[in-house]
Structures are given as structure tokens and as C-alpha cells.
Amino acid sequence: MTRHVCLLLALASTVHAASLWPQFRGPSGQSTAANETLPAELDTAKNLLWQTALPGGASSPVIVNGRAFLTGFAEGKLVTLAVNLADGAVVWRNDTTPEKLEAYMEKLGSPAASTCATDGERVVSYFGSYGLICFDLNGKVQW
User: Fold this and answer.
1) Distance separating alpha carbons of residues 98 and 122, to the nearest angstrom
2) What was the pLDDT predicted at 109?
3) Of 13, 26, 35, 43, which one has the greatest count of Cβ atoms within 10 A?
4) What is the pLDDT of residues 11-44, one digit of tens each?
5) How far is CA 96 from the centre of its chain?
């Protein structure tokens, strides 16, 4: 299963204005971006900046230094990846194969459901089947 991330122009100003969206639901955990307003019209013909095929998953992105970091699940592997917000290019991808995959219902969930977290220097992913894995912002495994 593949999901597509479509970054709308409405999000672009928010993303670039807030250089750090470090956790699920943003800096304050309230899903808000200070001093930002949505456009009057959302239309992919007018507002679509890019579209990128990504592995399936249920995580939300975290944002730091012009990149979105998220998790996914593909071909039995747990994936953490970084996407360039300017053009949608996948900057790096790390595939981890767990010894045993936890039980899940494909239509209701994913082993890649947890949102990453970042301190602005590192990105940490959690997978129930694997545990924690930490990367620097360039994708090098730290621990």
C-alpha cells in the first residue's frame, strides 16, 4: 500500500514559518501554527506544490530544517524517512527489519503508527516491533 503526501500551498507558509514542528500536533501539542491562516480555497490544481509516493503508515510528520520526517511500513520493513519540503524529494530512508512484527489489522492500523519526535538535531522513531531508533538529521543512525 502506498500513500501520497500532497503539500498544499496553505501548509507551505506554515511549514516555512515554523522551522520546528517537533512532535505530534506541533510545538505546543495543540495542532496550531501561530499567526497563520488557511487560504479561502483549497484546490489541488491551484495549491499543490508537489506529490511524492511514500510507504504506507499512520504517523504524522515532524518538521525541522526544511524537512518532514515520518515513518512507514513496506514489505515487512519499518521505515523512517526524510522528505525535502521544497520539492518533495526523499532525502534519506532507513529500513529496519524487526525480528518479529506485532499483530495489527491492516485496515485499522499499521506497525508504523507512531509519530517521530525531534529536538532539532536528532529524529527518534518508535516502532512497537523494534523499539526506539535515533538518527541525526542526515539519516545516520545514532543509537
Assistant:
1) 22
2) 67
3) 26
4) 444 444 446 766 655 666 656 666 667 777 778 8
5) 16
CB 88 within 8 A of CB 52: yes
Instruction: Please tell me the predicted confidence (pLDDT) of residue 41.
Output: 79
Measured between alpha carbons, how far is 16 from 27 in angstroms, rounded to an integer?
14
Cell numbers at 93, concatenated: 530512508
Q: Which residue has the cell 530544517?
A: 65
Question: Rounded to whole angstroms, how far apart are CA atoms 88 and 90?
Answer: 6
Q: Distance between CA 28 and CA 125 in Å, rounded? A: 19
Question: Which residue is listed with cell 496553505?
Answer: 10
Q: Quote the CA–CA distance of 73 and 56 in Å, as a whole number.
A: 5
Q: How many CB atoms lie within 10 A of CB 128?
A: 15
